[in-house]
Amino acid sequence: VLIDCLTLWLSNQMLAERDIEAECRGLADVLSRPRGPWFVVSNEVGQGIVPDNALARRFRDAAGRLNQ
Length: 68
Description:
single chain, mainly alpha
């Protein structure tokens, strides 16, 4: 299974105003029980400047937790 891209998945969840923590836990649960190989692609965020708006900061923080 190829998931490309985890950060795009996250932004879609955020824009749909879903419970991000619950959605991420659900994804982690599915990924913890593989039936074959998983390849997960994600963008690196948080290595640059601090975003100037609240949504971008929430995204940066959520993406960092999700990538962990």
